[in-house]
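User: Hi! I'm working on a homework problem where we have to compare a predicted structure to a textbook description. Could you give me the structure for the chain below?
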Amino acid sequence: MENMFDLSRPVAIGCDHAGFEYKEAIKKWLNEKKLVVKDFGTSSPDSVDFPDFAHPTASFVESGEAAFGILICGSANGVAMTANKRQHIRAGICWQNEVAKLIRLHNDANMICIPARFVALPLATDMIETFMTTAFEGGRHGRRVEKMACM
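Assistant: Happy to help. Predicted structure tokens:
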């Protein structure tokens, strides 16, 4: 095992309107775990454009200021596609715990994307727990991760 998150740094979180309720609950859950959370919005369930929140959240993770990032929208596809436009972001969509584990173990993901319309909140927090406590396996997976970025 190679890479664990430095949880002394803040966790970046962002969402669109479909993810707002989950974001608020996840922030509270993370705060109860004594983690610092940097919230990039949105700040209400009113309709918004997800890239306006996914880009700054991903930028904060890419800068190294965040331990990792969480993005939430209805399907998680839009926020994942937006975040993955950044050179050093590896954002994965999760719908079960095993996926959250594998995106860390095999892909060294630094952002987890939650589909709020398709997973219950307890599963979302379980997946985040799995994601943030799973180390990157390295080895052959390290070689593959190194090939992901555009040159």
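For your comparison, note the following. The helical segments are 20-32, 51-62, 77-83, 97-105, 121-133, 140-146. Residues 11-146 form a domain with the Ribose 5-phosphate Isomerase B; Chain: A, fold (CATH 3.40.1400.10). Good luck with the assignment!
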